[in-house]
Amino acid sequence: MKIIAVTGMPWSGKSEAVRIAKEQGIPVVRMGDLVWEETKAQGLDLTDENVGRIAHEMRNKYGSDIWAQKTVENIKKAPSSHLILIDGIRTLDEVSYFKKTLSEDFVLIAVDASDETRYKRAKARGRADDTVEVEVMKERDRRECGWGLGEVIAAADIVIINEQDIDTFRREITKVFDRVLKR
User: Fold this and answer.
1) What is the pLDDT of residues 6-46, one digit of tens each?
2) Cα separation of 45 and 24, whole Å?
3) For residue 95, which of 2, 7, 12 has the smallest C-alpha distance?
4) Residue 60: what are its φ and ψ, rounded to 5°?
5) Across residues 59-74, what is the average pLDDT?
6) DSSP string, 103-136
7) Torsion sign across C-alpha atoms 159, 171, 12, 113
């Protein structure tokens, strides 16, 4: 099995990369969906604060690879595939767990964008766990970097800078997916 994993700071463009993968028929597992499920299971609304707190509490209680463990459980229940895209890696322990459990044929792609660009996107996107307050956005960045997201981004095999228009990004990510598939 070949694994493509997408990581990056919030609002960098990961969701668009996922959308493109789905359009290409690549099965996608979004780790954030598991955090959302757990948040709802605990009777909480899907706010940035609640989702972040649950993600953090679960990592503290069960280890920094807990969401990778839950992701692998879901992958094993799904129909088999020679390729899977995993979205939302936040820790190097998650990367190690995926490599050990699923495949050494693992490519980590980081999507990168400036703070200014990301914050503009957050205000425009309007997802349930998003905010429009810059200070709250900065707090989310600090929380996710505290989990090790910066180290994961730095360890990426491929980095895509996403500062231009969406069509340019779509072309770039498509080229990367094609290149990975041909490996």
Assistant:
1) 999 989 999 999 999 999 999 999 999 999 999 999 999 99
2) 32
3) 7
4) -65, -40
5) 95
6) -S-EEEEEEE--HHHHHHHHHHH--TT--S-HHH
7) positive
Tell me how far apart the alpha carbons of residues 148 and 71 are, in angstroms, rounded to a whole number: 18
How many angstroms separate the CA atoms of 183 and 178, rounded? 9
The rounded distance, in Å, linking the Cα atoms of 54 and 95 is: 20
Compute the distance between CA of residue 22 and CA of residue 18 in angstroms, rounded to an integer: 6
Structural domains of the chain ordered from first start: 2-182 (3.40.50.300)
Question: In degrees, to the nearest 5, what angle opens at C-alpha 30 toward C-alphas 28 and 36?
Answer: 150
**The residue to which tokens 């996608």 are assigned:** 28
Amino acid in the structure at residue 110: A
Contact status, residue 5 vs residue 95, Cβ threshold 8 Å? yes
Residue position matching structure tokens 């990426």: 156
**Contact status, residue 20 vs residue 173, Cβ threshold 8 Å:** yes
